[in-house]
Fold this sequence. Notes:
The chain has 342 residues and is mostly helical. It has helices at residues 17-51, 60-80, 82-88, 92-96, 99-123, 129-136, 139-150, 157-175, 182-206, 215-237, 240-273, 276-297, 304-341. The two termini are 40 Å apart.
Amino acid sequence: xxxxxxxxxxxxxxxxxxxxxxxxxxxxxxxxxxxxxxxxxxxxxxxxxxxxxxxxxxxxxxxxxxxxxxxxxxxxxxxxxxxxxxxxxxxxxxxxxxxxxxxxxxxxxxxxxxxxxxxxxxxxxxxxxxxxxxxxxxxxxxxxxxxxxxxxxxxxxxxxxxxxxxxxxxxxxxxxxxxxxxxxxxxxxxxxxxxxxxxxxxxxxxxxxxxxxxxxxxxxxxxxxxxxxxxxxxxxxxxxxxxxxxxxxxxxxxxxxxxxxxxxxxxxxxxxxxxxxxxxxxxxxxxxxxxxxxxxxxxxxxxxxxxxxxxxxxxxxxxxxxxxxxxxxxxxxxxxxxxxxx
Length: 342
């Protein structure tokens, strides 16, 4: 009892000291994970842009092959370490018990993933980093459209309206590009089409009707399959210039590959530590920082029309994410209430 208050120390009106310290530590951990994710993502984007310069390593398929090989090896090594295996790979046994189902789900996903990375790397040869980030804001509109076509989403007028605003903002940002290159834009759009396909397939894989996989287990099985796909592509496009460039730049390629894998791990950790809306907010903050830093530190030219369109698009994505999260939470609460009633 608290002296003179007549109130039990465990009263819900007074937060225990342990609760406050635990909450603050969780918040610090979440912020640290988000900052690491943003730093790794921004560094990889700019590193890929630097490597894909025509005088360095302008071989998108070969660069993707390096990423997939290193990610496959590193994921296997992490799985072999008991501490990380128990914390990052929660559903491996479920997958191994159903190999046929695994392959039929993961092979299309790995092909889409390979297409995403190869085409995204190729787009760096033609377009600036801010422009490509602005194009990527269209993904949320594309994912929603594909989900409607496949019957994975139900049409909702409020969501559709917000996504129309996002589309308008993205159109303004893209239209305002000073050095617009049609070929680079089309390569980026193809990359995003592959990414939307990957996101749709991965959402099915991560759902309970699929395997209910965690992100790192998906990486563990998807990267080797993706490596096979990219190896086939590399076999048909390989020439001596790739080997010579690799020998000249192998330290940079090694660091770039470590960066790529650490980003995969950080995505898995952020998804685990934060909720879905937290991950979306981290992505929005990342895009804003990448675009603004490119303008401030790398002298990227952005028009006022572009900046306005980008601001509209990011604000729309934020509103859309909050609305979607609220509807999902409401549906989950209704489902749990129904179960309790039964």
